[in-house]
Amino acid sequence: MIPYDADFRLCTLPTTSKGTARIVPSRGVKINHLYYWNDAFRSPEVEGTNVAVRFDPCDAGTAWAFVAQRWQEC
User: Fold this and answer.
1) What is the DSSP letter of 69?
2) Contact 10/71 with Cβ under 8 angstroms?
3) Cβ atoms within 10 A of the Cβ of 2, count?
4) Pairing between strand 59-67 and 70-73?
5) Dist CA 41 CA 29 (whole Å)
6) With 0-12 CB in 10 A as exposed, 13-18 as middle and 19+ as buried, what is 3?
7) Strands 20-24 and 28-31, sheet pairing
8) What distance in Å separates the CA atoms of residue 9 and residue 25, rounded to the nearest whole number?
9) pTM above threshold 0.85
10) Confidence (pLDDT) at 2
């Protein structure tokens, strides 16, 4: 059996058509015309890079971005 936990839920959420989004300084990542922010985006090493993203189609207030080798909730 596969446990229905946070990891399973995150792996089954949809992504954008490209699968990634660019981190825009001071704005965050743009997913489906909405910007999402996490403090991990402040790092100069990640500004302007493309990161893997996931979003919840039933909850437009939450998205996830794979930054610094872990999923960050935005």
Assistant:
1) T
2) yes
3) 6
4) antiparallel
5) 9
6) exposed
7) antiparallel
8) 28
9) yes
10) 82
